[in-house]
Structure formats: C-alpha cells, structure tokens
Amino acid sequence: MGKSLCYIISFLTGAVISVMVTFNTEAGKLTSSEVSLIINQIVGIMTLEAIMLLGRKSSLINPPKREVKWYRHYFGGLFGVAIISLNYISVSGAGATIAMAGAVFGQSLSGLIFDMTGLMGMQKEKITKRRIISLLICLIGIMIYFFGGEGINLYIFPSILAGILTMVQMVYNSSLANAKGPFYSARMNVISGLAGALLYAFIFFPETTISGFRAMRDASFLTMVMGGLLACIVVVNTNIVIPRIPAVYSALLLSSGQILAALAVDYVLYETFTPVLLYGTLITLVGIAVSMEKKASR
User: Fold this and answer.
1) pLDDT category of residue 191 using cuts at 50, 70 and 90
2) Does pLDDT of 152 surpass 70?
3) What is the DSSP letter of 77?
4) CA–CA separation, 142 and 83 (whole Å)
5) Integer Cα distance of 16 and 288 in angstroms
6) pLDDT (tens digit per residue) in 220-257
7) 68: DSSP letter
8) How far apart are alpha carbons 12 and 262 in whole angstroms?
9) Would you say residue 288 has pLDDT above 80?
10) Other CB atoms closer than 10 Å to residue 58's CB: what's the count?
11) Which residue pairs from 288-291 have beta carbons closer than 8 angstroms and sit at least 24 positions apart in sequence?
12) pLDDT tens for residues 35-66?
C-alpha cells in the first residue's frame, strides 16, 4: 500500500472517529455511558467475528501469523474503555468540535513523542522546527476554544487525555496487527475492551448500568450499534496505516478529519456552531498544514 493511500485513509478515518464518538455519546444519553460502552464492544466482536469467518481464506483478513509477547494481546481494549468514557464526558459537556480539538492536540503531542523516542517499537523520526511550530499553532487553536466561549471550558482536558490515549492505543494495536493481521488485532481489542467495560460498569456503576439496559427498549437500534460498527472501521484502518507512515503524520491527518467532521456534526446535529468554533478550527488546521507541508516538500 502506497503512502499516499495511507494518508487518505488516515484522514477519512479521522472523520469516522468524530461520527463514531457522536453515536457513542447519543447512545449513552439514551441509556447510560456504561451501557453504550458495553454495547460498543459487543457489536465490534460480532462484526469482526463475522468478517474473519467469511474471509478466513483471504490473506488480507487471515494472513500468516507470527508469535508476539503475551501482553501485546490483551490490553488494547482497556485504552478504549478510557477513551470512550472521556469522549462521552467532553462531547456531552462541550460539543463535538471542542472535544475533537482537544483530541487533536493530544494525538499530535503524543505522535511527536513517539517519533522522538521510538516508544513501543515505533521508528524514530527527525523532529524539525516545523513540527514544533505546527504543534504550537495547534495549541493556539486550543486556547481559543478554552478561553473564547462564554467561560473557561474545562472539558478540553478530558478530550486532550482521550487524544493521547487514542494514539497510544493505535500504536499498541498496530504492533499486534503486524504480527497477527489487522482484523485479529481489532478483534482482540474489542474482546479485552468488553472485559474491561463489564468490570468497570458493574463494579463502579451497577445501578446506572442495569437501568441503562432497561432503557434500551426505547433507544434507536441504529444509534446503539453504529458506534461499534464504526469502531471496527477505525481500529482496522489504523492497524493498517499506523506502521506505514510516521506517527506524527498519522496523528495530524487523523486530527484533520476529526476536527472537520466534528465541526459539521456540531452544526447539523447540535446547532452549536459559533465564530469561536470556526476560528479555533481554522487555526488548528493551519497548524496541521504547516507540518504536512514539510512532508510534501521532501
């Protein structure tokens, strides 16, 4: 797969992430955030099992496998539990655009750190002044979101943490995908995610979880399942492209797709479009473009 196609997939995957987060949030409002989290993982398991069964003879879906250390299998989904919970908090409190803008910054920052350090097996990349400037411009966009509304928006902080954990999860899952295939890695991600979601929900929020399951009878089927279906697309796509391009570029392309789609979601679904959201988005996109221009000029 060529790098140009990887860049396009990364951008489109970012847009899918924003739509996925919106569905998860709406499902959580109709039931509870814990129920949304559990259903998300169950739908993912069922979808991926069906794909792997039907495509068991395909080299793309079921490629030759090699052994990896045991801990590479079982913890990717735990990141997902934290990410979905943090996204629910930030989208419910501040809307999709601010939530995704915080995630943009968190992903960009963690992508830069991965490239600088080579953590978790990522290839080290040279860190240029342009990349630092790009991140600082994105930070200015974040500050506009933070201070430019009716008051200081503290919901930006859980969204930044969600962005950092998203990048960590993607890198973690991609290492398993290299050894076992992207669909195998995605399936292990949702299996471990379901285990973590069940423990989290029934240990800390048993009453709201039970009442949330009862509320499912009045919830839209599409709203409840779309988050899990889109999550499969996101995990498989990132498993494929993350190892093929520098982490900082995958993070920035994902971020571009996320923030543009989030702006559209806020306008169409939540009717919360304001000049502040537009200015913050434009500045953040300028920061992304600054970094990508260097790549194009090589």
Assistant:
1) very high
2) no
3) H
4) 19
5) 18
6) 999 999 999 998 888 788 777 767 777 667 767 777 78
7) -
8) 13
9) no
10) 13
11) 288/104, 288/108, 288/134, 288/138, 288/252, 288/253, 288/255, 288/256, 290/130, 290/133, 290/134, 290/137, 291/130, 291/131, 291/134, 291/135, 291/248, 291/249, 291/252
12) 999 999 999 999 999 999 988 888 878 888 88
Residue written as tokens 């974040």? 142
pTM of this prediction?
Answer: 0.74
Closest among 118, 131, 128 to 171, alpha carbons compared: 118
Q: Which amino acid is at 103?
A: A
Burial label, 123 (beta-carbon count in 10 A; 0-12, 13-18, 19+): exposed
Q: Which of 127, 43, 138 is nearest to 100 (CA)?
A: 138
Distance CA 143, CA 247 (A): 24
Cα–Cα distance between 107 and 255 in angstroms, integer?
7
Residues 232, 44 contacting (CB under 8 angstroms): yes
Of 18, 193, 16, 190, nearest to 103 (Cα)? 18
